[in-house]
Amino acid sequence: MPNIQLGNTCFDYIQQKQKRKTITIALKNAGQILIKTPHNISAKEACDILQRYADWIKEKNQAYEKLSQQAPINDNYILYRGRKINISRIFSPTYPAVQLIDDHINIYYPSSLLLPLAEIFLPWYKMQARLYLTERTIFWAEKLQVNPANISVKDQKSRWGSCSSLKNLNYNWRIMMAPDNIIDYLIVHELSHLKEMNHSVKFWSIVAQYDPSYKKHRLWLKHNGDLLLHVLRN
Question: Which positions fall inside the YgjP-like metallopeptidase domain (predicted)?
Fold first, then answer.
């Protein structure tokens, strides 16, 4: 990947040539620029454009770096069921493994194999989601007296869950970063669709029956959801 020096900072950048008339610049991650240009814009011209917008890019990059320090998953801790779990790295000859013990999570891996956080935690979160969400869905399904046909864990970009007309429930694994009461709200929400396949007054009355604080939990997801939905994305 080519790079460009903007002030005191070196950025990686990708130029995507497309059938378009305008030029757009965006930061994919801290230190990584995506510039979309028409086909007739050369690499040198793209670099000149990036230099022209250097101040704006550096400002956005600082915002990304600040956000990454507050991210639910970083080099120091992860967020799991609403709790910050500190990370401990243990060099071991075995293949990378993850073990949760109280308020610590141990990562075991050979000293020569320093994997990105996504490769370590993505499969672990999905496994925890399958186990925990299935357990809690069975619990709440008995209370609501409904029978979901299938429970799936997915990597969705903008949705926390869904319920199909075939009674299949889908959950976004990232809900495992939320507190337990938020997770239960999501499960009750989706199971309530097995009784009422809409968001009518009747539907919300069903949700309220099993989660009287659903408005507060729904608001929590609205305020915190965007940050969680961007975790461990390429």
Answer: 21-224
